[in-house]
């Protein structure tokens, strides 16, 4: 049997009761896909990340939700960075994920450990009218709820997300969707989450992220979607670049999270957050 150590951290928060919890498994060799899936389901968090020691310059990393492997997970990467920083030193770490190579920098800020990741190159793809209407129907929303100043889009920075923005924060606050209908649609469209947004001001967004394909009703903080949004805003020229935006997520779930996103002129999007150990 493969030996490894499982840690639990909450990402995008400095409070163990907030943020998005992640399992972080570290061992000499990755378990089999079946074993990683079993461990992730047993942990029960939206994602558990599996990390090996150095292979050349990089560590091999894989991410599993309770029901499936995902190509990239931002909150588990931030949690991994903070864990590696606390056990091996604050510096840069290089991770080989299924989506590509990711760099994570770990450092102390105001006495608290923080990590920043640089995503793979982001890209966007049109959201068809059928996809959009099907998603809105599964959400039990109306097309009139949508804010087209940020047009619906499929956005990618390691995983695909459908980005939908609403006019009114009350619409975002009331999330009661058809789990099976949305899951079926997302599996067909190869989407990891829906990123549902309300824009408070130029640089502040509020987000909710259904994740039924992973067996999770809602994700409290979604770093991969945050990176994808940053890439979308840059590509569509919806924000003046370079930019720093803040995404507030998890509040309605009682697990408030804050994600900072740096959008440079080109290249990968930088996602920044803290993480703390969960006592268990």
- The assigned CATH architecture of the largest domain is Roll
Mean pLDDT, as a whole number? 96
Low-confidence stretches: none
- How many independent structural domains? 2
- SSE succession: EEHEEEHEEEEHEEHHEEEHEEE
CATH topology descriptor of the largest domain: Diaminopimelate Epimerase, Chain A, domain 1
Major beta-sheet overview: 8 strands, mixed, barrel
Helix content: 10-25%
Counting copies of identical and different chains, the oligomeric state is: single chain
Give the termini distance in whole angstroms. Answer: 24 Å
Describe the structure.
With 280 residues, the protein is of the alpha+beta class. The chain has two domains: 4-120, Roll (Diaminopimelate Epimerase, Chain A, domain 1), CATH 3.10.310; 123-267, Diaminopimelate Epimerase, Chain A, domain 1 (Roll), CATH 3.10.310.10. It has six helices and 17 strands. An eight-stranded mixed barrel has the order 1-2-3-4-6-7-8-17. Strand 4 (58-64) and strand 5 (69-70) form a beta hairpin. Helix 2 packs across helix 6 (223-235) and helix 3 (129-138) packs antiparallel against helix 5 (179-189). The longest helix has 15 residues, at 74-88. The chain is globular. The mean pLDDT is 96.
Features:
280 residues; alpha+beta; Diaminopimelate Epimerase, Chain A, domain 1; eight-stranded mixed barrel
What is shown here, in short?
23% of the residues lie in helices and 41% in strands. It has 280 residues and is of the alpha+beta class.
